[in-house]
Write a structure and sequence with these properties.
The protein is mainly α. It has helices at about 5-30, 40-60, 65-85, 95-105, 110-125, 135-145, 155-185, 200-215, 215-245. The longest helix has about 30 residues, at about 215-245.
């Protein structure tokens, strides 16, 4: 692994650690710690430098030239346009399958940057800026990141892996986003509410009940949308992305997918 590879890997590790801390702290910190939803602006200030660090590290290492950077901008723009068209109605989301396919071809760093940038820019045009935005950026970034680490495969087997991942990541995205606001969503005293004095396992049990009661239909809709779009559009888009990757002399860090068609 080269020095540039290590820099990008370190940036991705920092992103993962930041994500774990951002979502899991209610399980382990006590009420007297003073941490609340006001942490979101701090997290927001952390996410954007991470994205920039990943892109700049890719450029410095020679893995992303101007053409690859242009592809990042084009895909983020496409996702920005598609998001208000779908509006998340009944979980119908058009943006995540692009992150999955791009992360598969261009690698984990590219996938993370694409996911975070797409959610940021689309929030600007849909008036979706709020304390939830940094969580959306991190979680969407993880969708693209882990797509770059999927096992090698070709043909229909590859599409099956990507479609399965699309369904799993859709549920994971929904669970994490629900968990980001659940501690503040409903009042105390119910079996579905967050109890700061309870153990982590007890609160997780309460969250599962809350999620099943409120969000299962939305998560299922998002999962089916990802799977259907991957099967319908995955093969031609993978060929297009791999052709672009070869022409741009782009060597993706962490990608297990072959660039050959």
């Amino acid at each position: 692994m080269t020095g540039s590879d290590r820099r990008v890997s370190a940036a991705l590790v920092v992103a993962l650690v930041a994500g774990v801390v951002a979502f899991a702290w209610p399980l382990f910190l006590r009420p007297e710690s003073g941490i609340s939803a006001a942490q979101a602006p701090i997290l927001f200030a952390l996410v954007l430098p991470l994205v920039l660090a990943i892109v700049l590290s890719e450029l410095a290492g020679g893995r992303m030239d101007v053409k690859a950077l242009a592809m990042l901008g084009v895909l983020a723009a496409v996702g920005t346009i598609l998001r208000p068209l779908s509006a998340g109605t009944a979980g119908f989301e058009l943006i995540f399958f692009l992150m999955i396919l791009a992360g598969r071809v261009f690698g984990a760093g590219f996938g993370f940057a694409l996911g975070a940038i797409t959610l940021f820019t689309s929030a600007l045009i849909t008036s979706g800026v709020g304390p939830w935005l940094p969580y959306q950026m991190l979680t969407a970034g993880f969708v693209g990141l882990f797509a770059g680490w999927l096992p090698k495969a070709t043909g229909r087997a590859e599409l099956l892996i990507l479609a399965t991942y699309g369904m799993v990541s859709a549920f994971t995205y929904g669970w994490l986003m629900d968990f980001s606001f659940w501690p503040f969503a409903i009042g105390d005293g119910t079996q579905l509410s967050f109890d700061p004095s309870a153990s982590p396992w007890e609160n997780l049990h309460r969250f599962v009940l809350f999620n099943l009661a409120t969000s299962m239909g939305w998560n299922l809709g998002r999962a089916l949308t990802n799977a259907v779009l991957v099967f319908l559009l995955g093969a031609p888009l993978l060929r297009l992305f791999r052709r672009t990757a070869r022409q741009a002399a782009f060597v993706p860090l962490g990608s297990t997918a072959p660039l050959a068609e």
